[in-house]
Known about the structure:
- With 103 residues, this protein is mainly alpha-helical.
- It has a domain of 40 residues: Wheat Germ Agglutinin (Isolectin 2), domain 1.
- The chain has two helices and four strands; from the N terminus they run αββββα.
- The protein has a two-stranded antiparallel sheet. A two-stranded antiparallel ribbon has the order 3-4.
- It is elongated, with a radius of gyration of 29 Å.
- The N and C termini lie far apart (97 Å).
- Zinc ion binds next to loops.
Amino acid sequence: MNLLLIRLIIFAVLFFAGLKLYRMYREWKLDREGPQQEGDQGNRMVRCSWCQVHLPEEDALRERGDWFCSGDHRDKYLAERKEEQKEEKKEEQKEENKQERDD
Ligand SMILES: [Zn+2]
């Protein structure tokens, strides 16, 4: 009976010691990373890819790695980028045609 009690106490002590160590480790880690993350906590500012205005990350919309202040600007930006890609494709095709003629 005594042995069981001793085992129980040892187990409890180990458990709390581990918990305390874990908490200390977490605090130490937060202390170390704290200064670097100061800007990331709370309201990080991002820039709208369309109108270049800065706004808090939580109010911004994200689309394929770009930030936008509103759905309207996101749509405009994506529409323009699609057109750019189309034009690039057209130019590529022109280049290909030229090369074909040269041969
Ligand atoms: Zn905008």
